[in-house]
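Now for a concrete sample entry.
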Amino acid sequence: MLLQIYYQPVGILLQLAELCNAFLKSMKINLKQRNVADLKQGEKGIIANMRPNSLYLKLLEMGCLPGTEVSLKLTGDPLCITVGGHDLSLRMDEAQSLALVE
């Protein structure tokens, strides 16, 4: 009885981990994919996709659309990027949500 009570939460955690992995695969998110934060100063890349987060809609409205060229102007935190002829300041975690075409 005691072992059964102990193993139930462990089983639930394993199921949750499997669901999270299935979700990431369904969203086609590659956790090792290069992102805007990996760019070097002056380097350019093309946005492939974005990880869903609280700024998803705002980044889209600011021109960070898949297929758009982005270049890194200044490094540090925040980063300064150029998208569609406009300069944007992004925090490091925001820049990491923008995946690049490999």
Residues 1-30 form one domain.
